[in-house]
From TrEMBL:
GO terms for molecular function: galactoside O-acetyltransferase activity. PROSITE patterns: HEXAPEP_TRANSFERASES (PS00101). Belongs to the transferase hexapeptide repeat family. The keyword Oxidoreductase does not apply. Transmembrane segments: none annotated. Keywords: Acyltransferase, Repeat, Transferase. This is Acetyltransferase. Gene3D superfamilies: Hexapeptide repeat proteins. Residues 4-58 form the Maltose/galactoside acetyltransferase domain. SUPFAM superfamilies: Trimeric LpxA-like enzymes. Its EC number is 2.3.1.-.
């Protein structure tokens, strides 16, 4: 099986394949270039985003610095905003919808490593995708693990560790993250 297909299959594979390391180094260079492009060079920054990611909607802004293992496995919807220190361990697909906001220091990690220490020594890993629907807000320091989907309009509170799916239209937080309540009109009362 082609190594890139294997990365997306959920099967275990050797992440130290020379071909992968070479491509990843080029991807990391593009992220480095974005992080070191001055803010006033907006057109260059937007062009770099389109070069880094699989797809980029309109009006996407990512504060620097940020990191992505690959970039090419991540799709960003329109009106996406990420505060500083976003980290994307996108060894397989990360799909982010429209009008999504990330607070500082958010981490999305699709990669996992085997429990077996001998396999870890050999650089084996497996990956699970992450899907974040439209109009989701991740507070500061949120970590989302592979295999998780977060439903539209949901809010994930600061410091949460998201290990399971979160449905639409809820406020969830904690370690592990759990649904606390539904999104309702309470936020709009005086």
């Amino acid at each position: 099986m082609d190594i890139f297909k294997k990365m997306k299959s959920g099967e275990m594979y050797n992440s130290a394949e020379p071909e992968l390391l070479e491509i990843q180094a080029k991807a990391n260079q593009r992220v480095f270039d974005y992080n070191h492009t001055p803010l006033y060079e907006k057109e260059k920054k937007q062009a770099l985003l389109k070069d880094i990611f699989a797809s980029v909607g309109e009006n996407v802004h990512i504060e620097t610095p940020f990191n992505a293992n690959w970039g090419i496995n991540t799709s960003l919807g329109k009106n996406f905003y990420a505060n500083f220190n976003m980290s994307l361990v996108d060894d397989t697909d990360i799909i982010i919808g429209d009008y999504v906001k990330f607070g500082p220091n958010c981490v999305l990690t699709t990669a996992s490593h085997p429990i077996d220490p001998e396999l870890r020594k050999q650089a084996y890993q497996f990956n699970r995708p992450i899907v974040i629907a439209d109009n989701v807000w991740l507070g500061s320091n949120v970590v989302v693990f592979g295999g998780v989907s977060i439903g539209e309009n949901s809010v994930i509170g600061a410091g949460s560790i998201v290990t399971r799916d979160v449905p639409a239209n809820v406020v969830a937080y904690g370690n592990p993250c759990q649904v606390i309540r539904s999104v309702n009109e309470r936020e709009f009362e005086d």
